[in-house]
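hey so i finally got around to running both of the ones u sent me last week. sorry it took forever, my laptop kept dying halfway thru and i had to restart like 3 times lol. anyway pasting them below in the order u listed, first the sequence line then the C-alpha cell line for each. didnt double check formatting much so if smth looks off just lmk and ill redo it

first one:
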Amino acid sequence: MPDQEKISQLFADRIAGSLSEEDNSLLEWLLSTDEGIRTKWREYSKTFEDASSQRFLGELDADRAWLSVSQRIAEKRTTAPRQKNSWMLAAVASVLIAITGLGFWNYFFSTPIAANLEEVAVSSDVVLELWSGERYHLLDTTQGTTLIRKASAGFRAISVEKHQPELQPEAFNTISVPATRDYYLVLPDGSEVWLNSSSVLRIPASFQTFSREVFLTGEAYFKVANQAKLPFTVHADNVDIQVLGTEFNVNTFDRAQIITSLFSGAIEARVNDYRMRLSPGFEVVATAEGLLSRAFDPTTIATWRTGIYRFENEPLKQLLPVLERWYGKQIRTTDPALAAMKLSGAIHKSDSITVFLENLKATANIRYQFSGGKLLLSGTTPE
C-alpha cells in the first residue's frame, strides 16, 4: 500500500512528466475517486503554477482509469500461478477498499488538508526563494528538488534565447532552513545535500551551465556527483572548498573556525593564499591564522543527518547552540563555570528537549527552568 512519500512521488513525477503509464493510470483513478487526494493535487500543482497540471485534473475519467487498472490486474492474473490468484485479488481489493474509504487521507497523511496553499505555507518553515522572485514554503523533499530544477532550466532557456550567458549573474535560488528543521535536496547535477537546522544554501541560477558552485551559511553534508570538467565549489564564509566527486561535511556555525570534514574522495580548501588538500578521515579547520589539518572521528561528525548529535568530553557551552538550533529555544546559563563543564553522550532530535535536560539533571546535577520563553540552566535548583 503506498504511503505519503509514494503519493508525493507520484505528484512530483506527474509534474516532471516522468510518470510511467501504470502509475499514471493509478494516479488518475485515485484522483477520480477521492476528494482528499484531489484537494492535495490542486494545492501541489498550484505550487508549481503548471496549467497542464490543472488540465490533467479536469480531464480525469474514473471509468477509463479503472479500466486501465483492471486490465493490468487481468494481465497479472493470466501470467500468475493459479494458487496465487486469490491472494492477489484479495490484496488488490483491500487496497481499493482502503483507497475509497473515508479514512484514507488521515491514514496516509498525518496533517489535515489545508483549505488553500497559504494555509499550507504557514505550517512549513523551510523556505525556497527562486531567482525569479517566487517564494515557496516547501512541503516535502521532492518539491524543493523539482522547483530548483525547473527554475534553473528556465534560467538557462532565457540565457540561451537572449544570447546572454552572463544574464543576471547574481541570480540565486535560496533555501533557508530554520531552527528545529533540516532538509534534504538533490541539485540539478545529481549532487545530494543535507542541510542542518538554521542553515542557508544559495544556488546560482546558472548552476551546472557555467560552473557548479554553492554558498553555505550554517552546516551541510554534501555528496557530490562527479563531473571532471565542471568542479564543484562550496563557498563557506571566507573558505572555498573545491571537489570533483566526494562526500564531506561543512560547518560554519562558528565563524572563528570553519570546519570541513572529508568522508570520501578528495578536496582542496582555500583561504586567501593558503591552500590545503585533504584525504578521507581528515578535516581542515580554517581560522584567522590559516588552515589546520587534523584527523576526526566519523562516528561523531555529521550524525545530525540521522537526528543524533554525539559529543565526547565537550564543554556545555558548545552544546547549547545545538540545542537552540534543534529545539528553537534561547538557552542561558546562570553560572559561567557551568558552561565549561565537559560532557559526553548524545542528543536525539526526535526526543523532547526535556529528555536531554532530565539526563543533565540526573548525571551532572544541572537544573533547568523555562522562564519568559527562555531556558535557564544552573548548578542548583532555580529560585
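and the second one:
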Amino acid sequence: MKNIFHKGHKQAREKYKTKANADYWLETLDTSQLNQEMIKFIENSTYFFFATASPDGQPNLNYKGGDKGFLHVVDEKKLVFPNFSGNGILHSIGDLELNNKVSLLIPDFNQNARIKIIGTATVVYEDVYISEYIDYFSRFTFDSLIVINIAYVIPNCPSNLHRVKETILSFDEKDKDPQIIKKLCGF
C-alpha cells in the first residue's frame, strides 16, 4: 500500500537523492502482505516493538515479547498477540481506543534483519471473539488480544542494524543488578 507515503517522504527522497532507489524497492517488493519467509521470520520471533499514537499524534512505543508464537500470524494480512496489563498504565490500549493506526518493528539482531509493519489494530475483549484465536495462546493468561490488519510491510535495510550478539555473549551474570528497575524508578 503505497499511499502511506506523504509529501514529507517525497521531499526527503528528493533532498537525499534516494528517489530512484526507493522507487526500485517499492516497485519490486509486494509490500501489501507477508510472504512465506516473513511468516517464518515472525513465527520465530520472541519480541517486537509496538508503536501507537494518541489522536493528536503523541507517539508511544512499547516492547512486546513472549515465547515463539507470541506474535501469531493468522494469514498474510493479519497478526494477533495477547495483551498484558503490565504496570497498568496501558499506553497502547489507551491509544488504540481512539486511534487504531499502529506500526511494528520485528528485529532479529543476531541475523541482522528486521521487518517493519504498518497497519490498523483492533482490541478484542469479548470472549466470543477471543475464542476465535484462543488456540494460539492457550499457554498465556491475558485479558484481551490485539489484532493487526497489515496495510504495509517491508524488510528493512540491514546496513544500519546494530548487532547485539557480541554484547549478549560477553554479559556476565555477576554484573546483573537485581535492583535495576527500582533504581530506574528512583526508589
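quick thing i noticed on the 2nd:
The radius of gyration is 18 Å.
anyway thats it, ttyl
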